[in-house]
Here is the input.
Amino acid sequence: MKRAARVSQINDIDGNIHQLQLCIRAALAIDENISLLLAKCKQIATHFNHSIIAQSELKGFQERLGLPLLSVIQECPTRWNSMFNMIQRLIEIKDAIVLYTSQHTNLPQFTPNDWLQLESCATILKPFEEATKTMNPKYKTKFFNEITKESIESELISLRQDQEGHGAQAQPQIQSFEHDVIQHNQHNQHFHHTDTETLPSTSSGANFSTGRFLQSMLSEMLASAPNGDDEESPIAPIDRFLILKSLIINYIKEKRIGLQEDSLLWWKINPKYFELYRAVRQYLSAPPSSVPSKRLFSGAGLVYD
Here is the structure.
């Protein structure tokens, strides 16, 4: 995908969720004990994934122990959070796994200390799994260095100047934008309140506190000063270039909206930035991760197999 973009001379940046997952894998690989423990998990998961007889026997142990009938999850390098999901599932059916492996000595055996380490690993990975689901494009230039920020501003100004010849299209753009907002609001009347209420619900107190911590951390990032220079006066526009530059800089200096606030509504109540709307539709509409499409593609592959 990267090569296709570069050959086509399309500017691109890596997805932030992708970068996050690379960090997680690099961190796990550093610790030799964790790497060996994860290798055990993968071997057991592969065993069940390749044997219907093994799955049936494991199900029998679960029924006898009164455990929920859950399958072992196979870790997949291209399926984000699957490492966490595999560990979490093994912990959930721990007793059945212990009974099964005790009768199949060719499989790795987990010691009590191994299970403690797996639980610690799951606790550490849980916030990253949450972040993968909740990250959004509200952070503006929060995670860019100064050189990248300057490059972004220049690109936006150049893009907007290229569109100067289409001034007559400005009003239709605004009307189209307001149509998007109306459609969005109608959808949210049915779902937004329910989603907000169910957001903190979890299966345990530990999960709840972890989720709350993550929400607090992401909210703090949004609430922090955008560039640390909010006290500076806005640039006084002199010519067209400076007008656009002033508009972009002033937008970046705006306080970031909250984690649960509606981005489309913000644009509706701030019409002074409508000149940026084309860039907004082009760049801010891109999701920060391709998890949903990856999951759909992966699911289709499983069905096909």
Summary: Residues 170-198 form the longest helix (29 residues). Residues 137 and 285 are 8 Å apart (CA to CA). The chain has two domains: 2-133, 146-189+199-285. The chain is about 65% helix and 0% strand.
